[in-house]
Specification:
The complex is a heterodimer.
Chain A lengths: L2 E5 L3 E2 L5 E8 L8 E7 L6 E7 L3 E4 L7 E6 L4 E6 L8 E7 L10 E2 L3 E5 L2
Parallel strand pairs in A: 2-11
Antiparallel strand pairs in A: 1-3, 3-8, 4-5, 4-9, 5-6, 7-8, 9-10, 9-11
Chain B lengths: L8 E4 L5 E6 L11 E6 L6 E4 L13 E6 L2 E6 L8 E9 L2 E4 L3 E5 L1
Parallel strand pairs in B: 1-9
Antiparallel strand pairs in B: 2-6, 3-4, 3-7, 5-6, 7-8, 7-9
The chains are: A mainly beta, B mainly beta.
């Protein structure tokens, strides 16, 4: 059974960098799937941050592109998110997720989510 | 970025059907058959209910169905059950991005 688990600090100071890791178990990250990051501010809707495919193709939300990097560590079966120069508006539950085979701009497996608060 | 438009709320009695709309543009919903629907219970991660407009992942009841006409996609839940009470979000592929809907709270009366 495939499982995804987010990890990282729950509190980040304004202007600093938010860093999260998603550990994939029960399946290989080197497979015909997109691996994505999404977020949901408290009480609000979902937002796609970006996704990566076979580590070679990475796509970002244009509204976040200048501040985001998604990377893959195949040896650890993990992928990571970096969001730079954070503000209070970046406070959200962050999810990592996997797509069905080939993509489909959909996500069929999700991590439980991790709340990241941006505050001094 | 512009979110897809969904009605804030929808409701129905047990056994009835409810349909949720998701209106986009010719740059997203209208141009691609990559529309998905997610169910989210409070405090939980979203669950994929429909992808590629009409496909159901394994384990999703056939009471859930999707369709699309022009720039508007729809999710229909037939035979409403108490456990269907949740927030529902649509999403669509658009060039260079994926965009989500504003969300609809479904209440089972």
């Amino acid at each position: 059974q495939l499982q995804l688990q987010e990890s990282g600090p729950g509190l980040v100071k304004p202007s600093e960098t938010l860093s999260l890791t998603c550990t994939v178990s029960g399946g290989s990250i080197n497979s015909n799937h997109y691996w994505g990051w999404l977020r949901q501010p408290p009480g609000k809707g979902l937002e796609w941050i970006g996704s990566t495919y076979y580590s070679a193709n990475t796509y970002y939300n244009p509204s976040l592109k200048s501040r985001v990097t998604i990377s893959v560590d195949s040896s650890k079966n993990q992928f990571s998110l970096e969001l730079r120069s954070v503000t209070a508006a970046d406070t959200a539950v962050y999810y990592c997720a996997k797509s069905p085979p080939g993509g489909s701009a959909a996500y069929d497996y999700w991590g439980q989510g991790t709340l990241v608060t941006v505050s001094s | 970025q512009s979110a897809l438009t969904q009605p804030p709320s929808a409701s129905g009695s047990p056994g009835q059907s409810v349909t949720i709309s998701c209106t986009g543009t010719s740059s997203d919903v209208g141009s691609y058959n990559y529309v998905s629907w997610y169910q989210q219970h409070a405090g939980k991660a979203p669950k994929l209910m429909i992808y590629e407009v009409t496909k159901r992942p394994s384990g999703v009841p056939d009471r859930f169905s999707g369709s699309k006409s022009g720039n508007t996609a729809s999710l229909t839940v037939s035979g409403l059950q108490a456990e269907d009470e949740a927030d529902y979000y649509c999403s669509s592929f658009a060039v260079g991005k994926e965009v989500f809907g504003t969300g609809t709270k479904v209440t089972v009366l």
